[in-house]
Design goal:
- The protein folds into two domains: 237 residues, no CATH class; 112 residues, no CATH class.
- Helix 8 links the parallel strand 4 and strand 5.
- Helices cover 46% and strands 9% of the residues.
- The strands form two sheets. The chain has a six-stranded parallel beta sheet with strand order 5-4-8-6-9-7, sandwiched between helices. Strands 1-2-3 form a three-stranded antiparallel beta sheet.
- The protein binds zinc ion.
- The site of zinc ion (ZN) has 7 residues, from loops.
- Zinc ion binds next to loops.
């Protein structure tokens, strides 16, 4: 059953009727990979020097600047540094150079065999689930950082030389009454087809902040912000039928906005509404949501407040044969939320529609870049994809 708000005529309905970027999203993003490549700067090779654009890296360690250029606003997570040190030590011990290939900083070759044996043993030796999650996340992030260095653009996460789309992106100021949190699965970090990254590329990292699942420094920053904001200012956007969700209209509509607490006070930055977006594949999202619920219980003794999109989800159901959170990409969901808020009294004069459109434009640019890349690499796009593009 659709919430009552779904029946209301929305002026931005065009966004859902003509979403060239969304209709073929899942088709275009699949199987993006690239040939193996070798990590240039390593500790074990004294002759190896960082390429010019990474000259500040020095001996191959990750600096705070390098880390933050990828998107996070946090210090470098300590577990990530530990894993990088372990990888460098292993490289020295087995006298095999680290090499990476494919998308997402996957280790390749002989080094991979050694590393797999080692990380499995480390993982098994950890006896509590929390440590296992931290190790898993840190290893994913460490490999992605090293494997993408000098290869991906640090801003748009696309191959630097060929596909960087940064010059085309148009940043936009997000109304300060809203702050997005992109709760990203480690496997989505530095993934070329991830759309969560578009949020901070467009709105800036303090209006749209990255929080990586299982990275304790990130989760701590996010939950501290939630605690100081208070439960009434925190909402998770998650279209799970099994969870108790509220529509945007129900949460922020006229009746609710009669309550002074709901409409943010712009004179105080702490008054912003915090919207949490789960940025992972469908299968990973369930575990991520479970973790958020547990954290909410431990902080507030209550479930995490959830909202769902009325227009976005219902219309997207019609557009896609197998709708899922995965295909309703994160950036499009955030845009949908801004469009729905724009319709409500109390939110209509903050330019939210323009901000949502800026995000949608960015999704289109990303999909264009990914499609161009695919064609250049000699991969055909499916008939279904071509159909969607010409529409
Ligand atoms: Zn770029």
């Amino acid at each position: 059953m659709l919430p009552a708000a779904a029946n209301k005529p929305f002026s931005h309905f065009k966004h859902f009727l003509h979403p060239p970027s969304l209709a073929f999203y899942a088709t275009v993003i699949s199987s993006m990979d690239s040939p193996p490549r070798f990590l240039q700067p390593t500790l074990s090779s004294s002759a190896a020097r960082s390429p010019p654009r990474l000259s500040d890296i020095g001996d191959g360690s990750i600096t705070l600047q390098e880390w933050q250029r990828w998107g996070p606003v946090s210090p470098i997570p300590s577990k990530v540094l530990e894993v990088i040190d372990e990888l460098k030590l292993l490289e020295k011990n087995v006298d095999t150079q680290m090499s990476f290939g494919g998308s997402g900083g996957k280790l390749k070759g002989d080094f991979r065999t050694h590393e797999e044996k080692k990380h499995r043993a480390t993982y098994l030796a950890l006896d509590d689930p929390e440590s296992k999650i931290h190790f898993y996340a840190a290893r994913q992030i460490a490999c992605r950082l090293l494997g993408s260095r000098g290869y991906l653009c640090q801003k748009c996460w696309l191959p630097l030389e060929e596909d960087c789309m940064c010059s085309l992106l148009k940043p936009c100021t997000l109304w300060p009454g809203i702050r997005f949190w992109i709760y990203m699965h480690p496997k989505d970090f530095l993934r070329q087809n991830n759309t969560g990254k578009l949020l901070w590329q467009i709105f800036g990292p303090h209006s749209a902040t990255l929080c990586i699942f299982g990275i304790s420094e990130h989760e701590e920053i996010m939950w501290n912000a939630f605690k100081s904001a208070g439960k009434s200012k925190v909402w998770c956007l998650y279209p799970n039928k099994n969870s108790v969700t509220t529509s945007v209209q129900e949460a922020f509509g006229q009746e609710s906005s009669a309550n002074q607490d709901i409409t943010p006070n712009l004179t105080n930055a702490d008054e912003a509404l915090n919207f949490l977006l789960i940025d992972g594949t469908w299968s990973n999202s369930a575990a991520m949501f479970r973790r958020l619920k547990e954290q909410s219980q431990s902080v507030w003794g209550e479930d995490l407040p959830c909202i769902s999109l009325a227009t976005g989800v219902s219309t997207m159901h019609k557009l896609r044969p197998q709708p899922s959170w995965d295909r309703t990409c994160t950036a499009a969901a955030a845009a949908g939320l801004l469009f729905e808020l724009q319709e409500l009294i109390g939110f209509s004069c903050f330019g939210l529609e323009k901000q949502g459109e800026a995000l949608e434009d960015a999704v289109s640019l990303l999909l264009d870049a990914l499609t161009t890349r695919r064609l250049r690499m000699g991969r055909s796009i499916t008939r279904k994809t071509r159909h969607a593009i010409t529409n």
